[in-house]
Amino acid sequence: MLAREVVTTLTARGLTLATAESLTGGLLAARVVDVPGASAVLRGGVVAYATDLKHRLLGVDADLLAARGAVDADVAAAMARGVRERLGADVGVATTGVAGPEPQDGHPAGTVFVAVSLSPALAAGDGRVVPLLLAGDRPAIRTATVAEALGLVLALVTG
User: Which residues pair with 2 in a beta bridge?
Assistant: First the structure.
């Protein structure tokens, strides 16, 4: 289970995690919390489902949101960085996209961006954003997004 691996790895390295979620609606944080010992690493999470909350709670640039909408690689990166900074974590992870079944802002269902932001003490660069085009119904897209986000955390923390 990826969440268990994330918790084990972060615990062993003395690192903390914060989540910023849109299309996953708290599912990512819930998967981490399912793991015994998660309290050692999870600082907290922000579900910023509405676009204005991405700006107000996570510090995503309002002009960026107005120009591109919430389904965007740069928005995902800003969400991850914003939650990491605001919650005082070493690692921030974010999800944004379209779970469906209808398109949003011209993007088809399954268009997803996951992002990880690392504190400057961990990496010279800030992190990474991965664009995804996922298939399936709404629950399948949300579940696959969580798996991709956890996998990206592991890749960057252990890489």
Answer: none
Alpha-carbon distance 12 to 61, whole Å? Answer: 34
Distance CA 16, CA 84 (A): 9
pTM of the model: 0.97
d(CA 91, CA 43) in angstroms, rounded, equals: 10
pLDDT tens-digit readout, 17-63: 999 999 999 999 999 999 999 999 999 999 999 999 999 999 999 99
CB neighbour burial string for 105-123, b if at least 16 within 10 angstroms, e if fewer: eebebbbbbbbbbbbeebb
Q: At what angle do helices 138-158 and 2-13 cross, to 10 degrees?
A: 30
Question: Of 65, 60, 100, 103, nearest to 83 (Cα)?
Answer: 60
DSSP-derived letter for residue 60 is -
Q: How do beta strands 111-118 and 127-133 pair?
A: antiparallel
What is the rounded CA–CA span in Å between residue 120 and residue 22?
25
Distance CA 151, CA 6 (A): 8
The identity of residue 12, as a single letter, is A
